[in-house]
Amino acid sequence: MVKIIIKNLKFWYGKKQVLDDINLLIENKKITALIGPSGCGKSTLLRCMNRMNDLISSSKIEGNLIYNNKDIHKDYEDVSILRKQIGMVFQKPNPFPMSIFENVSYGLRAAGIKDKEILKKIVEESLKRADLWDEVKDRLDSSAFSLSGGQQQRLCITRALAINPDVILLDEPCSALDPIATAKIEKLLIKLKDEMTIIIVTHNMHQARRISDKTIYMLDGKVIEYSETKSLFVKPKNKLTKDYINGEFG
Length: 250
Ligand SMILES: Nc1ncnc2c1ncn2[C@@H]1O[C@H](COP(=O)(O)OP(=O)(O)OP(=O)(O)O)[C@@H](O)[C@H]1O
Ligand SMILES: [Mg+2]
Known about the structure:
Oligomer: single chain
Order of helices and strands: EEEHEEHEHHHHEHEHEEHH
Shape: globular
Number of domains: 1
Helix content: 25-40%
CATH architecture: 3-Layer(aba) Sandwich
Radius of gyration: 18 Å
CATH superfamily: P-loop containing nucleotide triphosphate hydrolases
Bound molecules: adenosine-5'-triphosphate, magnesium ion
């Protein structure tokens, strides 16, 4: 099943075109990795999927991103409704300056849930889902900044999970983390894909190979290849993909 349809997508920052006629079918309940050299447009493409680029006034978009039979840019008047379904996690862990409990319950409280027991229950469930509960259960009222970097990133994933998203977008979520913290996040993402669609930008090709089902290789704002991960890395169809994964790029 297809989760997001991307049709003839083009994107500009001012006069500079950074996405050029992107066409992709993102599959449901799979992990899709987005790889390619720095500046090729990975983050821009990811941000188009939940309209994070809306905030950039000089930007222009053409084409369509279809989610749940709706055009992400045209049919969602209230972008917060879209972002409840399509959550995002960034490169640098960005917990809010508040307690661990308040971080996880933030989205729920923003949605008007005030009942303390309900909040407690969902916070616990979400932290358990993200395998973080045992590490934080005795310090839920401590500042989120008291956690290690890896824990902070898992807290950010937990915060995204608490509102029960259908899709999670992750932009290089492990690039600031050591291999052990990275392995925990990879294990978590593999577990979560039973329940949701995951799209991850990564510069780490080993990571893409380890966790993703499908891989998109981008170069200069274009999709060069989109295949099953194994086949993209073992038998790339395009010479440009081959050069990149063999480290012969540029
Ligand atoms: N807010 C912005 N305003 C103007 N240009 C931008 C903006 N954000 C990104 N760009 C430019 O758009 C192009 C694509 O950037 P993008 O961040 O999508 O690349 P990327 O593939 O994610 O790179 P990296 O791997 O370094 O994160 C780059 O040339 C970048 O300089
Ligand atoms: Mg980027």
